[in-house]
Amino acid sequence: MNLRQPSESVECRGASVKIVDPAAILLAATGPEPVELLHGAPFPGSLRAVTMTAGSRLSTSGPVYRFVGTARVWRGGMDAVRSGLTGPVGVMIAKQMATRDPLRFAARTASLAGETIRRLGERPEDLPKERTVADAASGLSARVTYEVEPAGLPQQISVTVTAEGSRRADAVLTPYLRGFVTLFFGVLADLHGEDLDGSYTITRNPEISDKAPQRVTLDQVGGLDHIVRQLREVAVSFNHPEAMARWGARRPQGILLFGPPGTGKTMLATALAHEIRGELREVRTPEILDRWLGASERNIKKIFAEARRYTRPTVLLFDEFDSIISYTGGGQDAAGQAINSVAGIFKQEMNTLIEENPQVIVVATTNFPDRVDASLIRSGRFDIKLSVPKPDTDGRAEIIAKMLRRLITTYETPGFRMFGDDVDARELAVACPGATGADLREALRRVQLHKAMQEASGYAPAPISQSELFQALTTVSPA
After folding, report:
1. Mean pLDDT by 10 residues, the chain (479 residues)
2. Closest listed residue to residue 53, CA positions, set 86, 80, 26
3. C-alpha span between 315 and 323 (Å, rounded)
4. Beta bridge mates, 255
5. 3-state secondary structure string, 381-444?
């Protein structure tokens, strides 16, 4: 099993761009939705909101790849001041700030804005509305369009770079991708006015970009293909409301995930939130249960009242659901009546949540489904009920492989290898029967910590070997 994804490097105008698995990117680009390729990459201060996507469209002559890059460039005003603070202009403006003379400071700021515009290149009003750039190596040409808004300072220039190339059935044309990267980063450098001087990662998976925040996505989930498929369907219903409305369809209102501890139930809810391009709102036991009479009921009402006001797609997660909403009818003492009351309010709130705010979906997780009353999780409240089992050997192998690939792509650099060539995910999976995803993560954590402590003590540790991973897995495996 190949753990290191193929990659290519492109050097363009001072930028070192790593393209992770270009063939897989182009394959994903043939899907129904464009693939986002830049994830949280930090660009120089003058460049904002830089995005790059790869997709495809049908034409009379056949399918074609379609690459689109967008960016916003701020020039003038306080952004210009900030961009010049480290140079001679910054020294000048710092002296004026020290005088505390507002009029002189304003005059100097205007002068600095003009100087910054000149330093960065063309004046915004002189930019053409459209031009064409070409990459000789790939034969790809791109249309560059500019839009300047608003008038005055600070000014914002929006630029869009679009290129298309024919896709043959017998070949994956990775030169197109390299060519577009060269063209797009060249345009960005022109707008910035100097070389970009940075490292960037082009990838279809945000979790393997070392410049992106660590997120959990469904692509990262291993060994649970049937559950991932159903959650993707839920995400499609969120992302295509027009199709849902046309057919009068109602997406699921609630999802119950149940199974042994450590199998990834909370991770699945987090990944669903990412998939619907929304947020995760996690509700824990202390937020609801309160010893004072009537307080728990008020808390659950408050949580749902807030959920009805959410304006973005949101996964409302009740983790360890059985400890929050316990078994209805469990007792007639004061504590039992309070539990019954909270459960009753929960059912009432769930009855109308989706009609009042279709942006919210409720996900509940539990290790003990038998402790949750059937009336709480009936269809109409929780339409999807998914058992999340411990992974089998194939599932463990997939989980291990994805974990290792992510670490390799995130942390390995030229001259530094985290894992040895002898590491085999399949053999490791066979060696730890009964292990959950949480067990596998803990084993990796221990080995990483051991290597880091060796280096901190002055040693030069070798890459993590198969035997070291095997030893760590046997210490956490329940078998």
Report:
1. 75 87 82 81 80 84 83 57 40 45 44 43 58 88 82 65 72 79 90 83 67 63 88 89 88 93 91 89 82 80 92 91 64 52 87 90 92 87 93 91 85 85 92 91 94 92 93 80
2. 26
3. 19
4. 363, 384
5. CCCEEEECCCCCHHHHHHHHHHHHHHHHHHHCECCECCECCCCCHHHHHHHCCCCCHHHHHHHH
